[in-house]
Design a protein that fits this description.
This protein is α+β, with helices and mostly antiparallel strands. The chain contains 12 helices and 20 strands. Helices cover about 35% and strands about 25% of the residues. The protein binds flavin-adenine dinucleotide.
């Protein structure tokens, strides 16, 4: 073998947490990222609800203590009815106090996570960080992998390593070069995200709210500022024109229909995106491995994409470390695929599809039944705990452990 290091493509939350975990366990990493120091923080806002099991992992690599002061600790979340803003059910992560050291979520956006994780990666002697470097292709053989990159000077360069991990996100070149199907579907409607500096708590909302409505379901989340911001998601019709949808008066009108205050909201940002439900048919071919959005993408309802990706990173880091220490054969990577594909399909994808259906249900009888069911679940401590174990992905980790 010419090199024992791991090449990680992409300094998103998955590539960074994977690199930090490997490096802290004594493995050398070359981390390749297309963005440069001067534009790294200019990324579209997304993600930010960090579930308890993820917080344990972030704590393990020294990231939690950096993020907690920049985020909001949120033990509660609500299901609410839009029409009369009635509370349907309140779930309290306190029911998980015997299951985790973190019986709450941390509302802390992806951009803050990658900023803090990048600083840790820069400081770690086992990580060679290659910013402003574009990964373009790779080859693999029995002894290792070679990644082709374009470096900041615009020159083509080869990087050798033992394994290559794609943390490139949904458009993974590695996945495409391997010809791996990204199986699933794309929702026809797009999601409109509006960021508003306004304290919704005075209307009874909590930090995370999932809002039922047969015509225009929505989510409402609180993020730490300054200024503190709330992110409201709405579905939009597939044929609606983007410019018309995001005109200031159209955004204000939509927000007034959601919560009539009679005064313009202070809108601090907006974006419109397509939502996909896709899982790669394989997570590994030889020495090339997919993790995070490169391997699976899902609807953000339930806040699971980044969390699932970080769980992939930890699972994979342990296995790659064991292989390099010669404590395991590389067939453990097939177990990585079995475990994490199962989670992506049976937990992350299944739950986020269910979550959207629940919020958007049109049949009044089914809506009533769903509301009653949620209310009963939240009121019964045993059932509430079981529900929270699933929604916070703890159950997915426990189930994956049982997969040989
Ligand atoms: C609106 C929205 C809200 C969301 N909310 C949540 C949430 O609350 N909780 C949650 O768990 N998930 C959420 N998600 C999903 C979450 O953002 C993603 O799952 C997560 O960012 C995936 O992380 P990643 O590291 O796999 O990929 P990415 O975050 O996409 O990072 C990929 C990195 O690779 C780099 N890269 C790509 N190609 C190359 C190349 N060729 N060469 C070098 N570098 C390259 C990119 O520049 C980037 O830095 C949300 C998504 C959206 C759109």
């Amino acid at each position: 073998m010419t090199s024992n290091r791991i090449i990680v493509i992409g300094a998103g939350p998955v590539g960074l947490t994977l690199s930090l975990k490997l490096a802290q366990d004594g493995v050398e990493v070359c981390l390749v990222e297309a963005l440069a120091d001067d534009n790294f923080l200019e990324q579209v806002p997304r993600a930010g609800t960090n579930h308890p099991a993820t917080l344990e992992m972030l704590d393990h690599i020294g990231l939690y203590e950096k993020l907690e002061p920049r985020g909001i600790i949120a033990p509660l979340f609500h299901y609410r009815e839009r029409a009369d803003n009635a509370l349907i059910a309140e779930f309290d992560h306190g029911h998980l106090k015997d299951d985790t050291r973190f019986p709450y979520v941390l509302q802390c956006e992806r951009i803050k996570i990658v900023e803090e994780a990048l600083a840790l990666a820069k400081a770690h002697p086992n990580i060679e960080l290659r910013l402003a470097t574009n990964f373009t292709s790779f080859t693999q053989g029995p002894d290792g992998v070679t990644a082709q990159v374009t470096n900041p000077a615009g020159e083509d360069e080869s990087i050798r390593g033992a394994y290559l991990v794609s943390g490139e996100g949904a458009r993974s070149i590695v996945r495409k070069e391997l010809g791996i199907e990204f199986e699933g579907f794309t929702y026809p409607d797009r999601t409109l995200n509006i960021e508003v500096a306004y304290d919704f708590r005075k209307h009874g909302y909590t930090e995370r709210n999932y809002i039922f409505d047969p015509d225009e379901w929505s989510n409402l989340f609180h993020w730490k500022g300054p200024p503190d911001r709330w992110r409201v998601h709405f579905p939009t019709a597939p044929d609606e024109d983007e410019a018309a949808l995001t005109r200031p008066d159209a955004l204000q009108a939509r927000l007034q229909r959601f919560l009539p205050t009679g005064k313009d909201f202070d809108i601090v940002g907006t974006n419109l995106y397509l939502v996909h439900q896709r899982v790669a048919q394989k997570f590994r071919v030889g020495r090339a491995i997919l993790a995070g959005d490169a391997a699976h993408v899902n609807s953000p309802i339930g806040a699971m994409g980044m969390n699932t990706g970080i769980h992939d990173a930890f699972n994979l880091a342990e296995k790659l470390t064991a292989i390099l220490r010669k404590e395991a054969g590389d067939d453990v990577l097939d177990r990585y695929e079995r475990q994490r594909r199962h989670v992506a399909l049976q937990h992350t994808q299944a739950q986020t599809i269910r979550n959207k259906r629940l919020l958007a249900e049109k049949d009044p009888a089914v809506r009533r039944k769903n509301r009653d069911e949620l209310r009963r679940t939240a009121e019964d401590p045993k059932r509430a705990r079981a529900f929270l174990l699933r929604s916070s992905l703890i159950e997915s980790l426990r189930e994956a452990e049982q997969i040989a």
